[in-house]
Amino acid sequence: MLYDCAIIGGGPAGLNAALVLGRARRKVLLFDDNGARGLVTRESHGFLTRDGIQPREFRRFAQEELGKYPSVSLVFEQVLHADRKGAVFALATNSGFTAASRTLILAAGFREVLPSIPGIREFYGRSLFNCPYCDGWELRDKPLVLVSDGPHLIGMTKLLYNWSRDLLLCTNGWSGLTARQVKAFEERGIRLQTQPISALTGEEGRLEDVVFQDGMRVRREGGFVKTQWVQSAPFGYRLGCRVNGHGGFLTDARGRTSVPGVFAAGDTAVSGPTQQIIAAAEGSRAAMGVNQLLTDEDLGW
Ligand SMILES: Cc1cc2nc3c(=O)[nH]c(=O)nc-3n(C[C@H](O)[C@H](O)[C@H](O)COP(=O)(O)OP(=O)(O)OC[C@H]3O[C@@H](n4cnc5c(N)ncnc54)[C@H](O)[C@@H]3O)c2cc1C
């Protein structure tokens, strides 16, 4: 069967794209390998009517809703190939399943690389996060740590100051702050440590201490960390999609990438803040772009 659209990624972006395309009576194949970065967290916040939901629960609800639309099929496998073959896209998964589609939506999200600090994985998604809009409310007024460097450190410190005044900034060895910036921190009682962190310690995901190279321990109850983002899947690069200044695939107002027939939505097309509700909205927008393209092609007017 030739599908109207293949969607790579079953997070909020891909799921919402599938919903809109299913409702538009399009034949859709959605692939997901269940490796989203956001699954480390127990509660996801800031999505109207779903504030505090577990990301896995969110996906389960969405998958159930898609069950109403018979032209949408879900394949829980990893896509290994997505190549253009003439007028269609040819896809192949890790199990050898193959399919062909007229259009493609890239929605495979990002993989996150955490700073290499012993113990950090135990806390990430439990008491250490990357986005105060997602998790700042739960950590409000608590003693917090921010592990960051460069311009991100300054911007994030200003933001976090809205949620807690008890801040410990850790540059983990980076020392590029100006005297003016250091003074601004001191004036507001914000503590700064530039020496490397040797470990994070605590119990069952709850951060308790930041331990520094010289043995000093500072009590903290949670915090935020700057992470590096890399595209989860290589298909956008392989197909020749242009990239924007944030490392996301460049899209226009209909979710179209620079490659005809290829659309992108969610984290993979990041151009600013990333959240589930933003990803879902972009998935909806890309789906409408796909449907418009197919409609124009089919009717030829
Ligand atoms: C610790 C943490 C806390 C967060 N908290 C919040 C929060 O409170 N509120 C909020 O709104 N957002 C939160 N986020 C951000 C949110 O998770 C993302 O912005 C959102 O999930 C992006 O949706 P997406 O659909 O673009 O990508 P994802 O949700 O990442 O989904 C992409 C999917 O594509 C799949 N995939 C990748 N490659 C392939 C392949 N080759 N074949 C098949 N499938 C593939 C992945 O396995 C994944 O399931 C948090 C993130 C983290 C890391």
UniProtKB/TrEMBL annotation:
Keywords, alphabetical = Flavoprotein, Oxidoreductase
Regions crossing the membrane: none
Cofactor(s) the protein needs: FAD
Q: Name one GO molecular function term.
A: oxidoreductase activity
Q: Does the keyword Flavoprotein apply?
A: yes
| Record bears the keyword Ribosomal protein | no
Record-linked Pfam families:
Pyr_redox_2
Where does the record place the FAD/NAD(P)-binding domain?
3-146, 178-283
Record text on subunit structure and interactions: Homodimer.
State what protein this is by name.
FAD-dependent pyridine nucleotide-disulfide oxidoreductase
